[in-house]
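Feature request disguised as a bug report, sorry. It would help if multi-protein outputs had a clear separator. Right now it looks like this:
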Amino acid sequence: MKDFWQQRYSEQDFAYGTEPNAFLASCADRIPPNCKALAIADGEGRNGVWLAQHGCEVTSVDYSQAGVDKSNALAEERGVQLNAICADLNEWQWPEQEFDLAISIFAHFPPEMRKAVHKKLIAALKPGGTLILEAYHPTQLEYKTGGPPAAEMMYDVATLKEDFAGNEILQLEDLVAEVSEGKYHFGQGAVTRLVLKKPV
């Protein structure tokens, strides 16, 4: 998979555009002022850079060095600072109780890795911290407008309820939405959206 993402992000254009994910942007009022934010699987940095533009101190992590390089270039172009790290989330030394906000936007993993990543995401949040997540739903296979080719790498309400049990769910829904993010996420798609708070 690393070669796949390295190749995709080595293309001249930004694979998913340079604007933030629409659901993330709609959650702007949930972003604490001057917060420390973590963006996992941040690709070419569109979401991490957007958070930095909103005053966050952002740690952006991605598997692909080509993606990290583009993240840094986009941050420089937008005049913001980004702590962009190239790392495998399986091997990365995850901080604990460090972030006010974490985002996971179209970050899809096999079931066992997904559970581990979601557990570490919560551990990385400070008490009272917020997680914003959007991912493709298994029925996305019918739409073919983006996302992994395997249903087990997509998420639904039941899966996320189980993964994030014990947290305060502020929003959790499966829906069909129009997605317009570069040439690889375009058109109607089946998505699952989550906003939660870690207990104080």
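(second protein starts here, but nothing in the output says so)
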Amino acid sequence: MKVYWEIYFKNVPNDKVINQITNPIREYEDELIDGAIIDIGCGQSPFLLDFSWMDREIIAVDHEQSQLNFLKQRALKQDDCNIDNWKFCLLEYPREDIPDKIYSLIIFANFLHFFPLKKCIEIVETIQKNTAKGTLIYVSVHSNKFYENNPSDPNNNDYFKHYFTPEDLETVFKKGSFEKIYIADIEKIDSRNHRSIVSQWFDKACRKEGITNQKKIDFYKSEYLKNKTQSDIIAIFKKR
């Protein structure tokens, strides 16, 4: 995936990074309580770039230094960004703790599906100490309609540990502690731009694996790039 994110960084400018996301947090930005914004597993976070104009402490957390480097370079290109407000944390959450403070917004974008459902419940229970009444938590996860989900496959959960239903999210964010203020079940086909990036990545990844026969690469790539339904659930929860 490092190869993919390098290609992504070189080929996708900031405005595209920001504009291609679904960011319902914008609807509630006037309701944010005092406190920092944190993106856990941030990658090249479109959310933090989108909120770079805010006069708040912004904390980017990732276990890959290269992703933090890419994000910092992107942030420096934002005209309205005060980089002095940003903190870049190289750590492996939840094995390592995030900075201990109260947050106005916690972002779990494409993060929780890397853990079994029981672990997701533990993560949210633990992170409540970093919330106050009104803290918003943004979540995006692969749904059980995601194209790779095949429960009959014994290796189904080797990479993505859980595919979510809306009911699963309400199990993780219990009603006694959180109010669900937004939820969307999204299905989409990859855009031409995304397919182009994946095509470049596939070529480089094959060669890194020692596959040099172009006909074989083209065959594998055509199979990989067949239209896939990307299925995700996006939700925002507010701490009661």
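Even a blank line would do. Unrelated, but nice: Helices lie at 2-11, 14-19, 46-50, 65-77, 117-127, 166-172, 192-208, 214-224.
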